[in-house]
């Protein structure tokens, strides 16, 4: 049985993601993304599962930055989970949910429910928490306060809360991608009904700030007809205007094309780091309701 | 006298930025970035000043996204401010600052002081606030609690707090870029000692998901030898994998080169929107101490 670190507490979307990939393993929740990544780095657990990108909010910068600047882990897999937000209250507050005075949740969950909150709870204050799970926990612990949490159905179940309003997220098609991290790049099996293709992720830093540098880099992929599923610029943390690029290629590492790209970029004096080549899994919308 | 909306409350870095560009105008603080942008959109104020990018944390997604998806405002100017974080306490707590139990601040300010917090306050909890200014205000209002705020020197002054530890940020060369927004694109004067060049910002959506699309887009800039100071992908909010690109060109809108790029991209079936052509200002490090 493998040990899996995930961004807790119980009832987070990360727990949903982790249990979809590792249905029969042991789960250990950690209070922050760096803590998850540190635990796999020092060998306390076998894998860490953390969010890396949301369809609405974009990249989870802390994950990308900690991966690049702090813990050199490899991406061993990806799992995509549909994000459906619910307004969770203690049953004591259910009747008067429109008089809720304060809403607790993770900043992204609050941002994802912006229109709902403006329309139905325009006078409610927000209080940011580290996770949707901890927001639900806080609400469960204060049954007589006029407060609510934003979180998923798993959190309602685990903390004994009631869904006052369901599916309060602004956008349909909201999903979050989670990555499965390990010190080395072993191959997770693709033999899963959730398997949805392969990816290879490269980090590229440009040689110098000259016009057309990124264009040169992309040429190496373009003439090989490689499909990039994402390109993201992140700060080098050395000053405004200094970036590196994280590039997702929609294929598994091979012996010709991707090594050719890497060699070509290195000849251009780029620094290239392989962050992983891995299978991607996807939890279909209805599967979210299945116990995983 | 012009009316300037800024992301408040008093003592935020946005207030420092706004007063550097508009030293003699009237300031109105708003509790959120969307509120600032709404107020200039409906004509209650002449300009809104909001953060758009931090050198460490990257783009302020809420600003970019609200600009693209909600309020169609133009960028009329940019001001860069050095970010120096201080650990602020009520003087009652000064002697025992190492026993602080909870640290209040904006998530980015907490992230920027990660190493300091881990080393000196490893057991302190974090509580996220909407701004560094409101964190300082909370600490000032609770003099007998073992709490601290992370914020700037202006906040210490305005809320009567004491700097327990100065310059606690992890990285040197940390700056934040703020944009000055208005409904139309008037030209702010470049006649300022803070003037530091011009920029033009374009939003580009790609015609379809085909290999090499972004490479084609960048070709239009590259063969004209235009220097891109930034390229950022942001989600379209229509699903994972759908992005638009915000591209900063390091020059003022002209009559030949940038219109040529736009025509070429439109011929490729890209959708191109001009977000503004504007002067950039920069507050030198030492000027941060000057009363602005």
UniProtKB/TrEMBL annotation, chains A, B:
Q: Which GO terms describe its biological process?
A: L-phenylalanine biosynthetic process
Quote the PANTHER family the UniProt record gives. PREPHENATE DEHYDRATASE P PROTEIN (PTHR21022), PREPHENATE DEHYDRATASE-RELATED (PTHR21022:SF19)
Q: Where is this site: Essential for prephenate dehydratase activity?
A: 176
Catalyzed reaction equations: prephenate + H(+) = 3-phenylpyruvate + CO2 + H2O
Q: What class of enzyme is it?
A: lyase
According to the entry, every stretch annotated as the Prephenate dehydratase domain falls at 3-183
Query: Where on the tree of life does the source sit, at the highest rank?
Result: Bacteria
Q: Which NCBIfam families match?
A: PRK11898.1
Keyword Amino-acid biosynthesis assigned to the entry: answer is yes
In which pathway does this enzyme or protein participate? Amino-acid biosynthesis; L-phenylalanine biosynthesis; phenylpyruvate from prephenate: step 1/1
**PROSITE patterns assigned:** ACT (PS51671), PREPHENATE_DEHYDR_2 (PS00858), PREPHENATE_DEHYDR_3 (PS51171)
Q: Outline the extent of the ACT domain.
A: 202-279
Q: Could you tell me what this protein is called? A: Prephenate dehydratase
Tell me which InterPro entries the record gives. ACT-like_dom_sf, ACT_dom, Chor_mutase/pphenate_deHydtase, Preph_deHydtase, Preph_deHydtase_CS
Q: Name one GO molecular function term.
A: prephenate dehydratase activity
UniProt EC number: 4.2.1.51
Pfam families named among the record's database cross-references: PDT
**Mind listing the UniProt keywords for this protein, alphabetically?**
Amino-acid biosynthesis, Aromatic amino acid biosynthesis, Lyase, Phenylalanine biosynthesis
Q: Single GO cellular component annotation?
A: cytoplasm
């Amino acid at each position: 049985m493998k040990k899996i670190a995930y961004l807790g507490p119980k009832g987070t979307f990360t727990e949903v993601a982790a249990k979809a990939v590792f249905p029969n393993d042991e789960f250990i929740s950690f209070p922050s993304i760096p803590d998850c990544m540190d635990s796999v780095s020092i060998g306390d657990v076998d894998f860490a599962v953390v969010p890396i990108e949301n369809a609405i909010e974009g990249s989870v910068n802390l994950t990308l930055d900690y991966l690049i600047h702090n813990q050199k882990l490899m991406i061993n897999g990806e799992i995509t989970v549909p994000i459906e937000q619910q307004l969770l209250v203690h049953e004591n507050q259910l009747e008067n949910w429109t008089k809720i005075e304060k809403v607790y949740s993770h900043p992204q969950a609050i941002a994802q429910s912006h229109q709902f909150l403006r329309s139905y709870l325009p006078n409610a204050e927000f209080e940011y928490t580290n996770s949707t799970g901890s927001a639900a926990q806080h609400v469960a612990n204060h049954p007589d306060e006029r407060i609510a949490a934003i979180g998923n159905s798993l959190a309602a179940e685990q903390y004994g809360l009631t869904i006052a309003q369901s599916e309060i997220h602004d956008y349909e098609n909201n999903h979050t991608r989670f990555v499965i991290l390990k010190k080395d790049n072993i191959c997770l099996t693709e033999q899963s009904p959730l398997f949805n293709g392969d990816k290879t992720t490269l980090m590229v830093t440009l040689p110098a700030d000259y016009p057309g540098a990124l264009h040169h880099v992309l040429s190496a992929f373009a003439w090989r007809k490689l499909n990039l599923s994402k390109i993201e610029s992140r700060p080098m943390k050395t000053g405004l205007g200094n970036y590196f690029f994280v590039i997702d290629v929609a294929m598994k590492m091979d012996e010709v094309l991707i090594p050719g790209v890497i060699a070509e970029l290195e000849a251009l004096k780029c620094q290239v780091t392989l962050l992983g080549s891995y299978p991607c899994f996807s939890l279909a919308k209805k599967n979210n309701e299945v116990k995983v």
